Amino acid sequence: MIRLPLYGRARSELPSVADVLESASLRRGDPVVVGGVSGLDRTVRWVHVSEVPGIADLLRGGEMLLTTGMVLPAAEADLADYIERLADAGVAALTIGLGPRFSEPLPAAMIAAADRRGFPLIALRRTIAFIDVTEEVHAALVDVQVRELQASENIHVIFSSLAVRGSRPDEVLLHVAKLSGFAVVLENNAHQVLAFDPAERSRGDVLAEWAEHNQRAPRRGRTFYDPQTGWLQTIVGARGNDWGRLILMAGDAGVRDVTGKTDPTLSIPRSLIMLVEQAASTLAIGRLVERESELLDLSTHQSVLANLLAGAADERELDQQGSALGVSIRRMSLTALAARARTASAATTDVRVLATIVADAARRAAAPSLAAPIDDAVVGALLRLPAGDERAFAERLTATAAEHGMDIVVGIAGPDTGVEQARAGLAESIETVNAAVGIGHAAGAVRWDELGVRGLLYALRDDPRLHRFAERSLGELRRYDEEKGTTLVALLRHYLDAGRNKTTAAARAYVSRPWMHERLRRIEAVLGVDLENEEDCMTLQVALAISEQNPADAATLPVRSAR
Fold first, then answer.
1. Measured between alpha carbons, how far is 122 from 104 in angstroms, rounded to an integer?
2. Contact 186, 283 (CB under 8 A)
3. DSSP state of 485
4. pLDDT band for position 258 (cuts 50, 70, 90)
5. CA-CA-CA-CA torsion for 201, 207, 209, 214, nearest 10 degrees?
6. pLDDT at residue number 313
7. Percent of the chain with pLDDT over 90
8. Residue 93: which H helix or E strand, with range?
9. Cα–Cα distance for residue pair 334/144, rounded to 1 Å
10. Which of 30, 40, 37, 80 is nearest to 64 (CA)?
11. What is the mean pLDDT of the chain?
12. Phi first, then psi: what are they for 184, rounded to 5°?
């Protein structure tokens, strides 16, 4: 790893006017600040020599101007105006060599204007060669630029290496903290901490500061310095998908000016801004690569499972495909799982997320697996789990999904060995989870035989023979209810659900026992059945269950009352 100095400890790597006054070449001129002392902290970007009175219009700001004043105007008002125009142009300071034109003291109008604008006005009481000053200061300025370029290159190399290695966010933040010396926090768009590194501070101290300020509305722009919090922040994301914010708690790195007169971000060292922006890019690339990798895995697993269910490839080819992904379909004892959201509205949106959750759960359990979406709602999986751990794994999976805000059901089949057995098990688990969701089964993990006759009827709900059976068994009673305005179908359900106990049925229906007796005789007359006959009652109970699984048949059936 390339070792870098700590960045961000100084607000600017460029020298101030006070720093330049300490240079050896300038000290030989015996400099004295005669006005504008409050501006000595101004940053010097360049040193320029000029005798042109109108030079202010040709400067870009940040220059220390050296002059003998030979051609400056004589009138004090014009001299004051000269100072004003230099200050307006953003010049850092004016240094005048005494002797050729001015003697000590400098004109009062110039001093007054300099004091008024906080513009350093410096007199050199000894004659020096200006070229010596420009050479020394320019060499120092160039050195600063070289160091910035080196810092930029080093930062680029370090974080490019981290991106190529697929480093985790905590490793990226560790490098940011080491290079800057400041605590750093990565949060998501919901203002939740994803990772952080406290640098030289305690973890509790960093989290306390983050909790105090994290709800402050961010400013416009991807990178900015907030002078109130002392945070240098940048947005994390790519391809128009911004998913987080990187916060460097760089309290003393920038000017804490909250007046809004200047952009506080400009007071931050460029190397520090490069550091946080490069780190944000590395985090964004890592998220994209991770997502693309997950999508590729899902696509590959999906192809194998689809071919297995369709019987589109021979057993050897399927086993080769599975073995290349770590799962031998022919030789391993595999458990088949199918998972889906309980609500149809969430299924399409979350199916890929759910597939990732299943795959992650298998990795944590050290279980070789194939896991991928089967359709827009269901995720299928084949896993080699320890014997007897199938239900426990499924229950852990539902708990993990709940942590991600997903209420899911998991269908279980197997374990078994062999390609045909894997195909049958996967199909059974898919049928199980669909039936469990369809009939509103309460458990989160379920096998097919736990669904009973209602699960079977749901699985066969599209068979026209079931519709005919339900119609022939209950049709007359349903039409009687429609014509007479009665609720005999509901009373029949209460009676059958109560195990043909008339007292219990009457209580559940909130009617008297004699009235229930009379209505049951009416049902027998309408349907031509004997409600004391077990076979007739079984037929009617199955017909009611069929109607519940088929919306068309159940349209005229009242909702089952709570017991």
1. 11
2. yes
3. T
4. low
5. 140
6. 64
7. 13
8. strand 93-97
9. 64
10. 40
11. 80
12. -140, 140
Laid out side by side, the sheet with 231-238 consists of: 193-197, 184-188, 241-248, 231-238, 223-226
Rounded CA gap, 340 and 113, in Å? Answer: 77
What does the angle CA 404 – CA 410 – CA 411 come to, to the nearest 5 degrees? 165
pLDDT tens profile 119-162: 999 999 999 999 989 888 888 877 766 666 666 677 778 878 87
pLDDT tens per residue, range 275-307 = 888 888 888 877 766 665 555 566 777 777 888
Each residue of 196-235: pLDDT tens digit? 888 888 888 888 888 887 766 666 667 888 877 888 888 8
Report d(CA 259, CA 395) in Å as an integer: 57
Predicted pLDDT at 11: 41
- Mutual angle of helices 464-484 and 488-497, in 10-degree steps: 120
Pairs from 526-535 (Cβ < 8 Å, separation ≥ 24):
526/476, 526/477, 526/480, 526/488, 527/473, 527/474, 527/476, 527/477, 531/495, 531/500, 532/500
pLDDT at 7: 43
Say how far apart CA 209 and CA 9 lie, in whole Å: 20
Q: Looking at the predicted structure, is the pLDDT value of residue 365 above 90? A: no
- pLDDT digit string, tens, across residues 497-542: 787 777 887 778 788 878 878 888 888 787 888 777 777 778 877 7
Measure the CA–CA gap between 332 and 336, rounded to whole angstroms.
12
Q: How far apart are CA 46 and CA 68, in angstroms?
A: 18
What are the DSSP calls for 277-299, one per residue?
HHHHHHHHHHHHHHHHHHHHHHH
Examine residue 415 and say whether the peptide bond preceding it is cis (omega within 30 degrees of 0).
Answer: yes
- In angstroms, the CA 17 to CA 62 distance is 10
pLDDT at 549: 65
Residue 129: phi and psi, rounded to 5, are: -85, 120
Identify the pLDDT of residue 318.
77
Residues 6+ apart with CB under 8 A from 467: 546, 550, 552, 553
d(CA 291, CA 229) in angstroms, rounded, equals 33
Q: Cα–Cα distances in Å, from 490 out to 294, 351, 467?
A: 51, 38, 19
- Distance between CA atoms of 20 and 140, rounded to whole angstroms? 10
State both tokens at 187.
């949060």
Tell me the CB-side half-sphere exposure of residue 164, using CA atoms within 13 A. Answer: 6
Most confident of 25-29, 260-264, 321-325, 445-449: 25-29
175 three-state secondary structure: helix
Contact 306, 366 (CB under 8 A): no
pLDDT, average across residues 62-77: 91
Radius of gyration of the chain (CA): 40
Return the residue matching tokens 């499972």: 305
User: Is residue 426 a contact partner of residue 309, using CB atoms and an 8 Å limit?
Assistant: yes
Rounded distance between C-alpha atoms, residue 510 and residue 495, angstroms: 12
> Which helix (H) or strand (E) segment is 383 a member of?
strand 378-383
Q: Give the 3-state secondary structure of residue 538.
A: helix
